């Protein structure tokens, strides 16, 4: 009697999320995907990030990225909008200029990922075309005496952005100059106070 050859198990194919799967706590799924995307983009930039890796970090089906955000580009754009909403809570025009810059610095120390993402965007590009920087607030502060009249507000803005992003962009230089890690409490306290003093001297 002839034996039948064992049949190979059917190959699994990737499927789109079922309607019921999409309805399971969509806000939580969106939140997990956005957080995973921030990690991935901050580590690899827009070009280097892979949709599958983002989904794996979030523990979700990668089809949900297309379903909720329309793909990788839409996910990146949503992170950009998320930052703009967050920035509205940071940029208080009533704060003195030095305290405003320190508030941005505190935000960077608390979560360096948006700064890393911005650095990648400058080096390799991203899915969002940068809009011209609004300098009206700095010009108002300059008129009020918080920024010396001979300083170009655009140059001052670039300086402030550099002060805030330097610990994330150049942690090796922080070690060389200060002898401590860029994310250490000692450096954070010392550098924050120095940033305050530098900004005050620009008045």
TrEMBL record:
Pfam families linked: TetR_C_21 (PF17926), TetR_N (PF00440)
Domain HTH tetR-type: 27-87
Family annotation (InterPro entries): Homeodomain-like_sf, HTH-type_TetR-like_transc_reg, HTH_TetR, Sco4008_C, Tet_transcr_reg_TetR-rel_C_sf
PROSITE patterns in the cross-refs: HTH_TETR_2
Sorted UniProt keywords: DNA-binding
Biased composition regions of type Basic and acidic residues, renumbered to the chain: 1-11
Segments for region (Disordered): 1-28
Keyword DNA-binding attributed: yes
Gene3D superfamilies: Tetracycline Repressor, domain 2
DNA bind region: 50-69
Protein name as annotated: TetR/AcrR family transcriptional regulator
Protein's organism: Streptomyces milbemycinicus
């Amino acid at each position: 009697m002839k034996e039948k050859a064992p049949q190979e198990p059917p190959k699994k194919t990737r499927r789109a999320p079922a309607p019921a799967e999409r309805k399971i706590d969509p806000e939580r799924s969106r939140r997990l995907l956005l957080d995973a995307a921030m990690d991935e983009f901050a580590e690899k930039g827009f070009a280097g990030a892979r949709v599958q890796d983002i989904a794996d970090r979030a523990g979700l089906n990668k089809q949900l990225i297309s379903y909720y955000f329309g793909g990788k580009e839409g996910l990146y754009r949503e992170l950009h909008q998320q930052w703009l909403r967050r920035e509205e809570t940071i940029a208080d025009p009533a704060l003195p200029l030095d305290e405003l810059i320190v508030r941005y610095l505190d935000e960077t120390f608390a979560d360096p990922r948006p700064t890393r993402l911005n650095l990648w965007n400058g080096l390799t590009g991203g899915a969002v075309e940068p809009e011209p920087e609004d300098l009206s607030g700095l010009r108002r502060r300059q008129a009020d005496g918080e920024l010396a009249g001979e300083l170009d507000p655009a140059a001052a803005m670039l300086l402030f952005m550099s002060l805030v992003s330097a610990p994330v962009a150049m942690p090796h230089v922080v070690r060389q100059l200060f002898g401590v890690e860029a994310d250490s409490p000692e450096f954070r306290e010392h550098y924050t106070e120095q940033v305050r003093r530098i900004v005050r001297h620009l008045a």
